[in-house]
Design brief:
Strand content: 15-25%
CATH class: Alpha Beta
Radius of gyration: 18 Å
Structural class: alpha/beta
Number of helices: 10
Number of domains: 1
Shape: globular
CATH architecture: Alpha-Beta Complex
Largest sheet: 9 strands, mixed
Number of strands: 11
Order of helices and strands: EHEHEHEEHEEEHHHEEHHEH
CATH superfamily: Spore Coat Polysaccharide Biosynthesis Protein SpsA, Chain A
Length: 275
């Protein structure tokens, strides 16, 4: 099977341009390998700028122009207002693409990652959303597949100091599904992170993409639950990325506010679980 079209969307809002440059360079290498392997006939990359301001936007245009001279071709979509992470991805209209890759600007694909991800989906036609093995900035694994969250576990992960979190290691590890074997594929996922999601185009279209009700945080959990009603969510250990990341509690009061507001909306929509 040859995939006719893969659309990649990346949303930025004053995101560090050095990280974005590295992410796009890694994407170019992975995309070229994908095309050469016959897994895609075309790769379309769209960068959405969520109202980062004229100075940043000009620097972004300059960066994309430099990358284009090096063979990295991207289309830039400029939003006049910042309506959030999910709505930014939704600005890349759902067309007839066979696959959609949701990618954060601080995610670096390994050279063979797209080939391996596409091959996995080819072998497992019932899987409609695939997530990768994630390595953090320190080289250790990140556990971005989750069990359904509780209010207590979110408070611990997002806002508690380290010494408090250390009092509940088993509780947090269960939420992050560390009790499972991540050296093999998994087909029993409920919630996945939005930093890197490879989806079949039909699943993206049938779900309508991200809900506009979330400005930041929990839009990926919401999409996961809605997608899981239509398809299987899976994890492939040989589909690999590096993710810089960072929790809401380490990003200032605005991120804490968005986190709490989105958590409230998520629980109201999908059900409260306290502990």
């Amino acid at each position: 099977m040859t995939v006719s079209r893969l659309v990649v969307s990346i949303v930025v809002h004053r995101s560090p341009l050095k990280e974005l440059e590295r992410a796009l360079s890694c994407l170019r290498v992975a995309g070229e390998k994908l095309v050469r392997a016959g897994k895609a006939a075309a790769l379309s990359v769209v960068v959405v700028d969520n109202d980062s301001g004229p100075g940043y936007r000009q620097a972004l245009r300059d960066l994309l122009a430099r990358l284009e001279r090096r063979g990295v071709r991207c289309r830039l979509v400029c939003s006049p207002v910042n309506e959030g992470y999910g709505r930014g991805h939704n600005l890349v209209a759902a067309g007839e693409e066979d696959f959609r890759l949701i990618l954060n600007p601080d995610v670096f694909l390994e050279p063979d990652s797209l080939v391996r991800g596409m091959a996995f989906l080819q072998r497992h036609p019932r899987v409609g959303l695939l997530v990768p093995r994630v390595v953090g900035v320190q080289g250790g694994p990140e556990y971005l597949c989750k069990r359904y969250p509780t209010v207590v576990v979110l408070l611990l992960r997002g806002f508690a100091p380290g010494w408090v979190r250390d009092l509940f290691p088993g509780y947090l590890e269960r939420y992050e599904m560390r009790d499972l074997d991540w050296e093999r594929p998994r087909f029993d996922l409920e919630l996945v992170s939005g930093c890197c999601m490879l989806m079949r185009g039909r699943v993206w279209r049938e779900t309508g993409g991200f809900s506009p009700d979330y400005f930041l945080y929990f839009e990926d959990f919401d999409l996961s639950l809605r997608a899981a009603r239509k398809t299987l969510l899976a994890y492939a250990p040989d589909f690999r990325i590096t993710h810089l990341g960072g929790g809401a509690g380490r990003k200032g009061w605005r991120h804490r506010f968005w986190f709490i507001r989105s958590a409230w909306r998520f629980f109201n929509r999908h059900g409260w679980k306290w502990y």
